[in-house]
Amino acid sequence: MVRGAHQNPYFLRGFKGTVRGSSGLPSGPGQRSRMPSSRHRYTCESDSRCFAASAAAFCRSIIIDEHGDRQSFVSLEQRTPGILDRWIERIGVKNTIMFPSIVARRKSYEAVGGFHPELIHTSDWDMWKRLAVHGPVWYEPEALALYREHSGSDTSRLMSTGANVADGRRAIEIARFYLPEDLAAEISRRSRRHYAMNFVETARGMLASGHTAGALAQARQALKCDRSPKVAGTIAYHLIWAGGRWAVRLLTPKVRPVRRNP
Hints:
Radius of gyration: 23 Å
Number of domains: 2
Order of helices and strands: HHEEEHEHHEHHHHH
Helix content: 40-55%
Number of helices: 10
Low-confidence stretches: 1-11, 19-43, 246-251
Mean pLDDT: 75
Shape: globular
Largest sheet: 5 strands, mixed
């Protein structure tokens, strides 16, 4: 379950030991199997049985920039390590798992199938949802993984055309077929609303930085995600705000420096 973690530069010191320690497996050569330390108070009667029953496990992540400088932390799911309660109702709405932070059992991948070939950007989120439907998911609140964001990433490229939004909508529709029947409609509705507002905020940032074409692409796709008055009104507000800034720049006279004869 933790194979390869010790050589990955995006795992911080302690990731492999934490996962092995939680599972009751030996954390290194010559060491005996052990239970988690006393500072970790899990919610299950037997810590090792809880972890053994999980389909996957992930930890909190730290967002870094292209230079490796830390920018922010991914939101905290719970304060103590252990199985996440009603996890599908959260991961079904939005993706909070960064790829370097999660490990899954081979038998879990075999049970749910491979990554969806039709999804070009959200196949990881689709997989995390299927794993959550398949079985319990274990969470480690300590930040032990790094996720890099930079201008040359796949995400940045797709944002310029709105393809990231279209792919997100596709992932939401696909999930309706495997989410629990009594929760599918509500989770899908909340997810569409969440991502529509998220993409509107992305469009606002692109407008502010002068990427008008990309911003309009994001806004159009956001409306396809959710046509509610809240989303439409927010888009209109940002467009008016951007138009006002453009008008101010256009109408403000440019002051040319006066050249003096030597």
